[in-house]
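Fold this complex.
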Amino acid sequence: MATTYEIIIGLEVHVQLMTESKLFCSDGTKFGEPPNTLVSPVSIGMPGVLPVMNRRALELAIKAGLALGCQISRFTKWDRKHYFYPDLPKAYQISQYDIPLATEGLVTYDVNGEEKKCRLIRVHLEEDAGKNLHAEGGGDSLVDLNRAGMPLIEVVSYPDIRRPEEAAAYLETIRTLMRDLDVSDCEMQEGSLRCDANINLHITKDGNVYKTPIVEVKNLNSIKSVEKSLIYEASRQFEQWQKDGKVLGQMPKQTRGWDDARGITRSQREKEEEADYRYFPEPDLVPVVIDDALIERIRGEFGETSAQRKKRYIEELGLNDYNASVLIDKGRAISDYFEALLTHEVDAKSAANWLINDVLSHAEGRIKVMSDLPIMPGSLAELIKLVKGNKLNLNDAREKVLPEMIETGRDAASIVDEKGLGVVLDTAAIDAIVDAVLADNAKIVEDIKSGKGKALGALVGQVMKRSQGKFPPAIVNETLNKRLGL
Amino acid sequence: MSLIEKTATELVSLLNKGEVTSRELTEAFCDRIAEVEGKVKALLYHDRDGALAQAEAVDLSRKSGKPVGKLAGLPIIVKDILCTKGEPTTCASRMLENFKAPYDAHVISLLQNASSVRIARANMDEFAMGSSCENSAFQKTRNPWNLDCVPGGSSGGSAACIAAKEAPLSLGTDTGGSIRQPAGLCGIVGLKPTYGRVSRFGLVAYASSLDQIGPMARTVEDAALLLEVISGHDERDSTCANLPVPEYSKICRAPKKGLRVGVVTDYFGEGLDPEVEAAVREAVRVLESQGAKIVEVRLPTSKYAIPTYYMVATAEASSNLARYDGVHYGYRAKEYSDLIDMYKKTRGEGFGAEVKRRIMLGTLALSAGRRDAFYVKALQVRRLLRNDYDKAFESCDVVLGPTSPSAAFKIGEKSDDPVAMYLSDIYTVATNLAGLPGLSIPCGFTKSGLPIGLQLQGPAFAEETLLQAGYLYQQATDWHTKTPSL
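Structure:
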């Protein structure tokens, strides 16, 4: 009888909330500042200081909890979690232990068109620790406390995930949701989205089920690495079981770190003894009472989700499925940019085409906010309108004007003027050139009059050439047709 | 009568009438410090020049017609646990021997706004843990009434300096009796306010849910004046009540009609020194003769107050003192082999024996498997204690008893017997566990000439009633006018 196995995966996801200040003090939260510049006596944990809860962080956490389908606790509180480490200045983290902010959620996500569901155990709020920086070549370690005290939510799932690619899709869904709601920017590279995965196998052999010891996989720096590490870990556990037959309970829970370069997980420590965090209620903070009015107000902040937006692009704006998908999948900043273009009275299809075909190709790297794009929506709208209004040729707009706008930041009109690209609408001049072309091409004119209509294109081409492309093709066509009595 | 003999209330009046300058007054108290400090050893830090500069600034303000605060240029001494910018805040510990806080405690700012002159910082038991001031890492403070005896603790320096007339007012802190017990032992007035009456911001935490800052003075009226200055809401302390501050200094003089005094029968049992009992019973008769109605009340759970206190307080202390790890500030061991060794040696060398004992007790009380039997059980008893008080206050306005079971003991007498030492707080710890206000006032002397303290406790935020009762008592007695000969 064949040996089969099922993969059991649960994820613990940390999401950093987008607040102006830290969870319990007024230090700033900007990423990438010089070490130890976003600190204060509170975040350094100096003697005598006290924490004060950031209400905005609470609201964002409630928003996240609601979006993740959780029950929001009407009464919640803070607890201290103790451990000694240099990046934790108080030697305890203010977190939530027995009464988390939100419980029992549900995330619905899509894997290759198939709908999946993952239940959530809890969502709680806590403060982040700082960072230890280990100098290359040994020597003293250094501590950067900029991150200490940043607001995080921890989203703990049930072990409902069955395949590594589902884990990736689940994580992507959470990321999109958090970004849509302006809860977090969810940048795994910057640590504003972090994920630890718990995984084991349920192996069926000869009618018996063997459960392998649970492993917690850490050091996952991208969604791709979450998926890759779980694929690796599943086969590693299967091989290990074939070798030693060890099952859950016969071995302590193990933590393994993902080595992305080598594509393997490595044992970090075995939790022989479950760490004793000595949780107790944080006496410096008062419990938090959350009323219906607050929850309703936060519900009111919910904007349009990505899924709703995509539907509107297709059904109301008439975009094709491909363009709508690109605008949504490239991230909120792109579709926000598209929305901004629309406010400048540009039609949706042109706006989508210009954005996707012309602007995005110039925007290399990551785009988080609209201003990361090389040109402001108003300027792009101006360019699109010049083309639409027959005042600029499409090719010139694409090849000559847009690159210059991106490079110099100048507006379209001044570039068109300077380069002499403006389309001339001098009807006398058009008539003169049309007449000259007709006179020089008697043969073609005859062909057309005798019904060979396709030859018209050749005349248009000649008129355009003589005018150095400054005449709008539509007007040239119209004039030729009139002269030829077509 | 020399200036230093006068009460704070009298001195404020002289200052405001221009009959004495703050500089003259500050000089007089600094001279007194120079005269007696060698015997009393109440102070850890005294900056005469700095004090005179502050005094001159107040005098200048007054001279130029600028507003002068309620303390009018009065010298004050603060316990060395209140963070003060630019001054050492040592908590009488090697751990913080060279620590200078970069910020002012809320009460320090309030003192400044009230135009007081900080002249010195008072000795204490290390991190406020102790009942005799013998746990100071730096010096043993003497009781001004008998230099062979302890002044009590932990605010022993703050009490002794008032009895020795080194200042008219001081601030202490009280976690389990640390204001009231030394006030009783030194024959002065000490008030522990309701939890939340005074901001704890900048008070170096021992047990956060119990700690309160309070006034120490020679008379009830003076204590009321200082309480009025330091009370009130502070948004930096989430546990600080947002309630208006009554004019305690005026209200205390208004007679409380039909004052009902509950004599706590549970306090008059085993362990109470007969001389103390006699003095307290005599105080009851005095109050009765002043028109108070005397009733008997029970606080049956109070027999569990000491073990309950030593669970709750040490649990919180083990957490609050975890931050002293040698990483970010304070003492760090000179030699160590690795991070864990650095932690061990730093904490082993930086803390004194009693602090280590309480950290270990508290760590045990919160540890996995013992938390329910110790910490959680203690919280349940704490609730019962509060219920006892609520019931008692149904039939009286204040409850009355001795502050301590005996008068001051000899230096060294109890230092090898922690339990005997802990029992000296047997009547005071329950007040903190219940979060209530308590007042100690002098009510007599033993045959050997040591002061005896009378304790009044009231309902939450009933400081006014305590002060009125205390004032009433002091109108009929002269114990508070007695002075030790130094």
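Chain A touches chain B at residues 41, 44-53, 80, 82, 84, 86, 89-92, 143, 274, 276, 278-280, 283-286 (CB under 8 Å).
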